[in-house]
Amino acid sequence: FSTFPGSPRWTKTDLKYRILNYTPDMEPADVDEAIEKAWNVWSSVTPLKFTRVYEGDADIMISFEAGFHGDFFPFDGMGNTLAHAYAPGEGIGGDAHFDEDEYWTKDLKGYNLFLVAAHEFGHSLGLSHSNDFGSLMYPSYKPMDTRNYRLPQDDVDGIQTLYGPPIS
Amino acid sequence: FPLAPETEKENEEDMQFAKKYLEKYYKLKTEAEPIFKTKNSKPITDKIREMQEFFGLKVTGELDSNTLEVMKQPRCGIPDVGQ
Questions:
Q1: Percentage with pLDDT > 70 across chain B
Q2: Which A residues, 110 through 139, put their C-beta within 8 Å of a C-beta on chain B?
Q3: How many C-beta neighbours within 10 Å does residue A3 have?
Q4: Is the N or the C terminus of chain A less surrounded, counting Cβ atoms within 10 Å?
Q5: Average pLDDT over every residue of A144-161
Q6: Residues B27, B82: Cα–Cα separation, whole Å
């Protein structure tokens, strides 16, 4: 695993997220479920808690965007780059953007939103890319069965260097 | 006759694709080369090596088919190297 230069991390454990818009590819309820499940991947191995807000500011803003979308890192249409997210910080820090030109699904017919979101939220929390092929933070998309998903040990080790284990 | 055989065109297209990939994810600098560039410095070769090492590929510095295949996989847009 690796962290971003300077190892930026959130200094609080209660983080707020907001879903700014939805992809037309999926039912909104399925998007909500994929996002919530992706947060659970990280909250289950750290003291972090994620609360959804529906208006106003949030630590982590989540949106579906196509092409140029105002952050100097335009998306590239179908394929290649699927999404990106920013390391912890004020403003755009922590925010996660998903390329609307991809076909998002709750299963494996398109790109599985849960798998991509869980990876991006790793960045939102301070993890950079891992070169461990089996890890969630490996940069390439790997379709897999998401039922009973278990966070690989490399990612557990990475996130716990930033936030420690869950408080029992 | 065509100006260039099809394979040469494909190779050029692959190299352009690889350059863009390396610029985006490995901070390849194709403009404003450093003044103190060493005689044998080959930025693209070095970046291909860096990329191959990161992905656990055979490190050759050459744009072989395995390297190109990994470059063409769908992926996250965050660079693999620290900024």
A1: 72
A2: 111, 116, 119-120, 123, 128-129, 131, 133, 139
A3: 18
A4: C
A5: 96
A6: 9
